[in-house]
Each structure stands twice: as C-alpha cells, then as structure tokens.
Amino acid sequence: MSEGPLQDASAGLGEDAARELLSGTERVRRQARAHRRIVAAPLYVLGALLLVYALLKLIDRMHLENSLSDGITYATGQPALQTFLESYWATMGALGLVGIGIWFAVRRQRTGAGPGGLAWIVGGVAILLLVWLGGYVLPLTPLFLVAGFLAPTLFIAVPLLVIAVQRRSTRLAAWVVAFGVVTVLGGLGFFTNRLGDLVRLTGLESKVSLDVIVSADLAVLLLFALILLGAAEHARRATAQLPS
User: Fold this and answer.
1) What is the DSSP annotation of 49-90?
2) Which residue segment(s) compose the domain that 183 sits in?
3) Which pTM does this prediction carry?
C-alpha cells in the first residue's frame, strides 16, 4: 500500500525531469538556428554587395580602356559611375544592414524565434548619418576622409563586427574580419603589386600580360564574393537541416 504513492511521486519526478530535458534541448536547437541565421544573412549581403561592386569596377575599367584605345588622352572612366562607386560601401552597406535588420525583425515577429533586427537597423542608420554629417562635423572629417579613401568597406565591416561580437558569433566575426582585410588590400592594389613582384621574380614578364597583372585585385574581389555567397548558402542549408 505504501509503495503506490512513492511510485507515483517517482513517476512525477521522472516526467518533470524529462520535460526539463526536452525544454533545454529545444533551447539549444533554437540557439543553434539563431547563430546560423546570424551568419547566413550578413554573408549573403556582403557577398552580393562585393560581387556588384567588383562588376561595376570592371565595367568602369573597361570603359576607361576603350576610351584610351579611341585616342582620348585624359580619359577618366564614367564620372557618374565613379561617383557612385566612391560612396558605394557607405550607402549600399548601410542599406544592406537595414535590410538585414528588417528581415530579422519580420521573421522574429512571424515565428517568435531568432535574432532581433534592432541592432542591424541602428548600425545602418548610424552609417548613413556618418556619411551625411561626417564632412560637416569637424572632429569626424579627417576620419571620414581617410576611411572613405583608403578603406571604404570599413563603413559596413566595423558595424558588422560590433554586432558579431555583441551576439557572440565568432564565425560571423571571422568572416567580417576576412572581408575587411581582403577588400582593403584589394582597394590598395596589394594583390596586383604582389602578382607583379612574383612575375618579375620568376622572369615571366614576357609571358604574362600586363592586363592579367592589373586585374589581380578585381579577380580576388570577385573570387572572395563567390566564397562569401557559398559560405552563406552553406550556413542556410545547415540551418534548414537542424531539427525544428
């Protein structure tokens, strides 16, 4: 007679423990999916922005080469396109962050899970304010000019890195750092110079076209854009395969 209540209490305790275990497992699954989403969406945006940027730079360069071949001595490319490219990372990068934030916010409101979008939207708006006011606020002017000329991709890389650190996403932080390094070096002509050095060291000047050498930076940017898109797709598929 006395064993019945004990058995009931033991069974009740087992059910509570099982329920707590299932709840903990579900939390881990949601956190894993959230971390994957945090990686996938920004990498899609970075990859797409970098791909478009590299293609626009290629178009501008081809226009410049065609102008020079037509005998125009002081050809400078397409002024409208060059003006757009000068502010590309500040404006399009800001819009990209805002787009990520809106997507995350809508998804979280619809599903009740996943990362929020406020930090991304704030980061995008901050970039736009920096672009609009950076030239008029005296303490920001030197920083704005240097960043815009030497490392324009920092306008999007720095806010993304801050968000990645805040969300404790080491994978996203690593990709953002790689993005910043590759794009800054590419913008400074690093890969073209290194390829030129390699050609000279190997004595292949007569066999390697100058066009190939000067295209090294654009080639690296295009390749890295595809790598980013591939990594984003891999993260998206990994998220889809996680148990819901």
Assistant:
1) HHHHHHHHHHHHHHHHHHHHHTT-TT----HHHHHHHHTHHH
2) 37-241
3) 0.76
Q: Is residue 46 part of a domain?
A: yes
| pLDDT of 6 strictly over 80 | no
Number of domains in the chain: 1
Contact of 186 with 150, CB cutoff 8 Å: no
Alpha carbons 175 and 98: distance in angstroms, whole number: 19
Is 97 inside any structural domain?
A: yes
Domain contains 235: yes
Judge whether residue 25 has pLDDT over 80. no
